[in-house]
Amino acid sequence: MKVILKADVKGLGKKGEMVNASDGYARNFLLPKDLAAPADAQNVTEMKNAAASRQFKYDTEKAEAEANAARLNDQILTFTAKAGTGGRLFGSVTSKDIAEKIRAEYGIPVDKRKINVADIKSFGTFPATVRLFQGVDATVKVQVTEE
Fold first, then answer.
1. Domains, the chain, with CATH or none
2. DSSP strands (E only) in 39-147
3. Across all residues in the chain, what is the average pLDDT?
4. How distant, in Å, are the alpha carbons of 18, 22, 49, 76, 138 from that of 44?
5. Distance CA 23, CA 5 (A)
6. pTM for the whole thing?
7. Count of CB atoms within 10 A of residue 93's CB?
8. What's the confidence (pLDDT) of residue 147?
């Protein structure tokens, strides 16, 4: 019997897949526990529409991330900080600071965990990689100057 899975079923398949299950397994386990729906014309159409919707959402988010990456690439983010002797900063410039600066200057929401940067504890210019989407990265330069 062909069924469309509504949830991941170990040993059978993932949510949204159409699989062949034995008649007894489908009638006595999958359908009563609402883990699957029969693969009739209406359910198959709904499955295809849901897949198309997911793909459209993925494509639009990726296109937006690529546009944002083009805006961010090779931009210079300038920070001012106080330092002690030897040019060592009191504290450091963190990925949280960089995310807030990107949000303020460019209006692009970035999660601080998606920014890859070395510890910035002195003056200078440092590269930072910002992951905007799966497979879409932007490289910015973080410049730290004296206050």
1. 2-65 (3.40.5.10), 72-146 (3.10.430.100)
2. 76-81, 88-93, 115-117, 120-122, 124-133, 136-146
3. 93
4. 8, 19, 9, 50, 39
5. 14
6. 0.74
7. 22
8. 79
Q: Using the 8-state DSSP alphabet, how is residue 113 labeled?
A: G
Q: Which residues pair with 144 in a beta bridge?
A: 79, 124
- Other CB atoms within 10 Å distance of the CB of residue 40: 10
Give the DSSP H or E segment for 5: strand 2-5
Both tokens assigned to 17: 């897949």
Which of the four pLDDT bands, split at 50, 70 and 90, describes residue 6?
Answer: very high
Cα–Cα nearest to 68, from 113, 133, 143, 117: 133
pLDDT exceeds 80 at position 93: yes
Q: What pLDDT sits at residue 70? A: 94
